[in-house]
Amino acid sequence: MNNQIKLQAQGLVGRRHANFTFHGRQRAKQHCQIAPEQIVRLLDNGKFVTLGEEPGFNRSHQLFYSAVDGTAFIAIQDTLTGAIVSVWPLTYPDSLPWQISAKDLATARNLATGRLEPSTLECRVHFCTNGVQRTRTVMKLRGKLDEIRNLTNETSFKEEVVRAAERQGISGSDLFAFSLGRRATPGERREINRTAN
């Protein structure tokens, strides 16, 4: 089976454009003055810092800055559908499983205000092996966000994602999606682990 057929059979798709769930829109209106449509534009244009991902829940925590509010917020986004399921203020002490650094805040602010342009995005594959869902970065992309977004819609790019995953020992038949994003700090990964007590 060639990679194109494998991709069609697996339904491998790129990250969807941001959109709000009903709950997510309500939380955005409750916590922010910035319009929900502006939050969508920030996320779709890569003007955020990924703080961490919830393994097994397909949730990514995106730190974005609102010039209207003069502060940053965290969008909880489904990595497969792009849906923003909630928006948190930074004052949620019990909900934040990590410390947000001054560098993360400065990066989010600089991205939102145009002082810094998104330049490197990681391509992550989502796969299931031995009944466990996993995510792994398989390549890094540099360039303008619009150019990268256009590239990800091409079949040849999806085939390259499968080849990159296979070079890292991930079977193409285990893949079910890929997403693009950036890490908070290069070389550092902060995951949210949900453990039963």
Give the C-alpha Rg.
17 Å
| Principal-axes shape call | globular
Distance between the termini: 45 Å
Low-confidence stretches: 1-15, 184-197
> What structural class results from the helix and strand content?
alpha+beta
Summarize model confidence as the mean pLDDT. 77
Beta strand %? 25-35%
Question: Could you characterize the architecture of this molecule?
Answer:
This protein has helices spanning 3-10, 22-31, 36-44, 102-112, 145-152, 155-167, and strands at 19-20, 49-54, 59-66, 71-78, 83-89, 120-129, 132-142, 175-181. Mean pLDDT is 77; it is low at 1-15 and 184-197. A hairpin with a 4-residue loop joins β4 and β5 (83-89). The longest helix has 13 residues, at 155-167. The protein starts with a helix and ends in a 16-residue tail after the last strand. The protein is built from 6 helices and 8 strands; from the N terminus they run αβααββββαββααβ. It has a 5-stranded mixed sheet. It has a 3-stranded antiparallel sheet with strand order 7-6-8, with helices on one face. With 197 residues, the chain is α+β, with helices and mostly antiparallel strands.
Summarize the structure.
By secondary structure, this protein is α+β, with helices and mostly antiparallel strands. It has helices at residues 3-10, 22-31, 36-44, 102-112, 145-152, 155-167; strands at residues 19-20, 49-54, 59-66, 71-78, 83-89, 120-129, 132-142, 175-181.
